[in-house]
Amino acid sequence: MTTAVATPGAVTAAGSTADLVQSIDWLAIAPPVAVAAMALVVLVADLFLPEHRKPLLGALTAAGLVAALALLVPLRAGDRSTFCLTESAAATAGTACSYTADHFALVIQALVLGGALLTALLSLDDSRKPPAGEYWFLLLSSAAGAALLPAARDLATLVIALEVASLPAFALVGIKRGDRRSSEAALKFFLSSVVATAVMLLGVSFVYAATGTLHLTEIAARLDDVPGQLDTLAKAGVALTLVGFAFKTAAAPFHFWVPDTYVGAPLPIAAYLSVVGKAVGFSGLILVTVIAFPAYADVWGPALAVLAALTMTIGNVAALRQRADRARSAVRLLAWSSVAQAGYLLVPIAAAAYSSDEHIGSTVAYALMYAVVNLGAFAVAALVARTSPGNRLTDYRGLYATRPFAALAMAFFLLCLAGLPPGIIGLFAKVTVFSAAVDAGLGWLAVVMAVNVVIALYYYLQWTATLFRAPDQAPTSTLAPAPAGAPADSTAPAPTRHAVPVPVTAVIVLTTAAGVLLSGVPQAALRFAAANLF
């Protein structure tokens, strides 16, 4: 079997099969290819490196991710496409291509590669060392799929990229061998994701049966004129595809895997799933709704609006009920907070069904803010876990007395998530999402969001206050009262001063600096809220 590459003026013998010849722009696909290549290098190097040289694999991983980020710079114009059906696809708007490096793809690729890099830095000093070769190979493999997905422009590439990003994540969650909680989290994550994939593939098959194509732009054109006998099939395909992505984005009621998965996974992987995993799910959801299914906006628009209201409400109420003295309550609260944030991210996508796809920029702007501050919060959690493995909320009591910078950084991250000053970027991001709902005529959704923002203030501010309380004072309250007879810690031990590992410090410093910079010039991120990224 041979592979043909299109060249200017290429024609087939029959004159009718030129659309089967695909062109390859190697620079356009360079970022995900670089990550995948480094994954293979790490896998092979692991076979030959002696045990005491295994830390070099982590350095190779970080170097590969930095190189992939650098390869985004030549693509900043956002005008390259490849794997197209015609030789002029790179220059012809609307031509069916399987891979497009537009501004949307580049922004999401920068987000996921940056998130993977910070995850790698956090993992360099993981107190419970996982198997080095397997860990770094799986992380890079997942990052390669995550970088491919936002540039995918056909359903086959989209599904494959999603699974390449997800399958290594199952193993990463359960990589703590001998840990029952980790194994249980991996199994729950795997089963829920497999169900989501099965449902999504069924939906994709229905869409293909109704339209006869897998390219997103061609699907959009053909759904505008679906024969009457195929209309029900097409609507079912759209609905099932969206259900599959709802699992991936942790939208309620498909969110049940999130808390146990985050708690059971190594902390760096929990951070990775909360940011990179969520970015992957939402970018896929945006691509299928805005590019492929605009003709059925009356189907997915109301559905996503309801899912957004349900997700943010369930996430915030569950976070509100977390007991501060429960083991791993800090990570569990961040998990439920992640579910609530997913609800906010869904709002502009739902709004795009009622007005225009310009509201998608609000989701991108919010995702940038969320990625920075949530990774920073997990970095502080990793720091606290070094001296308090239980990672209870009570373990953060008096953190300011021994770790002033970490406490101030954590307070800043929590205030950004709450949307309060000095977390200006969090406030502006919430305002853009709120405006998107109002502009689309979804007043009821804006009201639900406002109520949920107020609910979230309680547990974010409660945690923030804990950071500055006297460490030698017994805790007097929790986020939710403990039931009668339930065991509880009567005192919270004061944090012990230990040397702070350099990689964790670097992540906290980088995320804090990025958050402060974005808060100082929020237009740097929020300009996406008014931009047409496609």
Notes on the structure:
By secondary structure, this protein is mainly α. Helix content is 64%, strand content 2%. It is built from 19 helices and 2 strands. It has helices spanning 30-48, 55-70, 103-123, 132-148, 155-173, 180-211, 216-223, 231-248, 258-264, 267-292, 297-320, 329-352, 360-387, 399-402, 404-418, 424-439, 443-467, 502-520, 523-526, and strands at residues 80-84, 97-101. It is globular, with a radius of gyration of 23 Å. It starts with 29 loop residues before the first helix and ends in an 8-residue tail after the last helix.
Can you describe this structure in just a few lines?
The protein has 534 residues and is mainly α. It is built from 19 helices and two strands.
Distance between the termini: 35 Å
Q: What series of H and E elements makes up the topology?
A: HHEEHHHHHHHHHHHHHHHHH
Low-confidence stretches: 1-19, 87-93, 474-478, 488-496
Average per-residue pLDDT, rounded, comes to 84
Percent in helix: 55-70%
The helix-and-strand class reads mainly alpha
The value of Rg in angstroms is 23 Å
Quickly count the helices. Answer: 19
The total count of strands amounts to 2
Can you tell me the overall shape?
globular
Characteristic key phrases:
534 residues, mainly alpha, two-stranded antiparallel ribbon, 19 helices, 2 strands, 64% helix, 2% strand, globular, disordered N terminus
